[in-house]
Amino acid sequence: MRGVYLYLAVTATVFALLSARCCLNVSSDETRTKLNGCAVDFISFREQFHRSYVANSAEFDLRHLYFQNATKRHAYLNSFSTVAQSAKYGINQFSDFSQEEFRDLYLRASADRAPLFPGLKTGKTEGLPAKFDWRDKAVVAPVQNQQACGSCWAFSVVGAVQSVHAIDGSQLVELSVQQVLDCSFQNEGCNGGSPVQALKWLKQTKMKLVPQSEYPYKAKTGICHFFSQSHGVVAVKNFTAYDFSGQEEAMMGHLVEHGPLAAIVDAVSWQDYLGGIIQHHCSSQRSNHAVLVVGYNTTGDIPYWIVQNSWGTTWGNEGYVYIKIGGNVCGIADSVAAVFL
Ligand SMILES: *[C@@H]1O[C@H](CO)[C@@H](O)[C@H](O)[C@H]1NC(C)=O
Ligand SMILES: *[C@@H]1O[C@H](CO)[C@@H](O)[C@H](O)[C@H]1NC(C)=O
Ligand SMILES: *[C@@H]1O[C@H](CO)[C@@H](O)[C@H](O)[C@H]1NC(C)=O
Ligand SMILES: *[C@@H]1O[C@H](CO)[C@@H](O)[C@H](O)[C@H]1NC(C)=O
C-alpha cells in the first residue's frame, strides 16, 4: 500500500514540476482545457468545489492525478467540437473523480428494453412547433441534485409524474423522490434502478406519491414510509415506454402531446460536460443513466433535445444538457416513457 502511495506521490510531484510552467498566466477556460491539469489549476479547483483533502496528502496526490487525466480527456473530447453550438468539455465538479468512480456513483440506471414505437415514421410532425419547452408553461420543477446516490431513475420518473400532474391542471408540487427510492422494491435504491420498473411498480401498487416536503430526499436508501392515501397527491394510472430510434420526430410529437418524458441514456462522457449540444462521445443501447426530456429546439443549425439532469444546477447548462436530435445520440430514444395520471 505504501509503495502505491509513494509511487503516486512521486508521479504527482513530477507532473506538478512538469506542468508548473504552464500555469503562470492562465486566464480563459479554453486555454485551461488545453493544459495538462497544472498544480495551480488543481488548487483553485479544490477551492472552487470545496474539497477537504489537504495538500501533500495521499488523497490530494491521487485526486490530482485524476484531475490531470480529466484535462487530457477534455482536450480529446473538445477536438470534435467544430461549431459554436457544439458541446464543450472541461473542469466541473466531477474532474477529480476517476471514470470508474464516476460510473459507480452516478451511472446506476439499468437499461430498459422497450418495443419500437408503432406510429408512422412520417406525417404527424407537420403541425409541430419548431421549438417547444415545457418549462415555458411552468410545469417543470427546478433541477435537483441526486448527490452520491444512484437515484437518477427515481428522479426521472418523479419528474415526469409531477410535470404531468401540473399539465393536468393542478399546481406544480414537487413529489417525493425518496418515497420512490425507498419503496420501489424491484429497484435497488441508491444502488440503481430502472425508470420502467419504477413505473410498473407505481402502476401496480397505485401508491400515491406524497409531496417532497413530507418525505424529503436524503441521498440514502431508507425504510419505506407509508402514508394514508389522503396524504398522497397523485398515483400513476398508466404509462407507455417505447424505443423511438429512427423516429425522433415522432418522439417530439409524443413530448408535446403527453408531457415531459423519462428517458435512459449513456452518460459516460457527461462527467466532463460543460454545455452546448452533444453530438459525439455517446452511444446508444448502452444506457447507464436516467433523465427527463422537457423540450426541443429545431430552429438552429443543430436541432436538439432539452434534457433535465439531476446533478445540480452547477453542471451543464444550469443543470440541463442539450442533445442533438436525430441519430439517437446518447441513446436518448432507446426507452422513452410517458406517464398517464
Ligand atoms: C496575463 O495575461 C493577461 C492577458 O493576456 C495580461 O493582461 C496580464 O498582464 C498577464 N499577467 C502576467 C502576470 O503575465
Ligand atoms: C488515466 O487515463 C488512462 C486512459 O483513460 C487510464 O488508462 C489510466 O488508468 C488513468 N489513470 C488514472 C490515475 O486514473
Ligand atoms: C395502458 O396503456 C396501454 C398502452 O397505451 C394500453 O394498451 C392499456 O390499455 C392501458 N391500460 C389502462 C389500464 O389504461
Ligand atoms: C433555439 O435555438 C436557436 C439556435 O441555436 C437559439 O438562437 C435560440 O435561442 C434557441 N431558443 C431557445 C428558446 O432556447
Automatic annotation (TrEMBL):
InterPro entries attached to this UniProt entry: Papain-like_cys_pep_sf (IPR038765), Pept_asp_AS (IPR025661), Pept_cys_AS (IPR000169), Pept_his_AS (IPR025660), Peptidase_C1A (IPR013128), Peptidase_C1A_C (IPR000668), Peptidase_C1A_papain-like (IPR039417), Prot_inhib_I29 (IPR013201)
Segment forming the signal sequence: 1-20
One Gene Ontology biological process: proteolysis
Keywords: Disulfide bond, Glycoprotein, Hydrolase, Lysosome, Protease, Signal, Thiol protease, Zymogen
Family: Belongs to the peptidase C1 family.
Protein name as annotated: Cathepsin O
EC numbers, comma separated: 3.4.22.42
Annotated compartments: Lysosome
Principal localisation: other
Biological classification of the source: Eukaryota, Metazoa, Chordata, Craniata, Vertebrata
Domain of life: Eukaryota
Originating organism: Dicentrarchus labrax (European seabass)
SUPFAM superfamilies: Cysteine proteinases
